Amino acid sequence: MAKVRFCKSCNNVLVGNEKTCSKCGRKLSSPFYKKWWIYACVVIVACAAVMLSFPDLALNTIAQKFDGKTKIDKTEETAIVQVFNKKKFELIGDITTHNDGSCYYINGIIKNNSSKLCPFVQISFNLYDKDGNQIGVAFACINNFESGGTWKFTAQGYVPNIRDIKSYKFVAVDVY
After folding, report:
1. Closest C-alpha among 87, 105, 82 to residue 156
2. CATH no., domain 89-175
3. Is 175 exposed, middle or buried (0-12, 13-18, 19+ CB in 10 A)?
4. How far apart (Å, rounded) are the C-alpha atoms in residues 85 and 150?
5. 52 and 110 in contact (C-beta within 8 Å)?
6. ∠ CA(166), CA(169), CA(172), 5° rounding?
7. Local structure of residue 86 (DSSP, 8 states)
8. Which of 6, 9, 13, 45 has an alpha carbon within 20 to 30 A of 57's alpha carbon?
9. pLDDT at residue 85 above 50?
């Protein structure tokens, strides 16, 4: 038995899958649940809800393990030359490291022993994994480094997996 419907404007009885009313010529619309785009929207919303309710577990695990307080063991660190260039720059104190789960930080203080202002100074460190392979670079920059002044630098290094960093090595202090 065919499905019986009624035209909304003239109340003519419609039988079957007619697209227009045979009496008044009005275009007939199908119920909302028979439209393809409704189902597409429902699928998109459902996918978004699933993605938001199950965040990447690997990133959460890394963030929990590296809460910004962990440091590389001193036995794994590469020694840094304490004097860069005695005529121009000198490292004051110790180098410290920390991370926030997505970025690796190397902190220290440099003194400008030169007799003039340095317009642009950059310090850089290579980052290494447990096998000694270079996996990234950490660097910091400063403008107008005054003669006799000190700079408390924080060199930042980004690598895909912060847990891979096992050592670092001073590369250079560049002046431009």
Report:
1. 105
2. 2.60.40.10
3. middle
4. 15
5. no
6. 150
7. T
8. 45
9. no
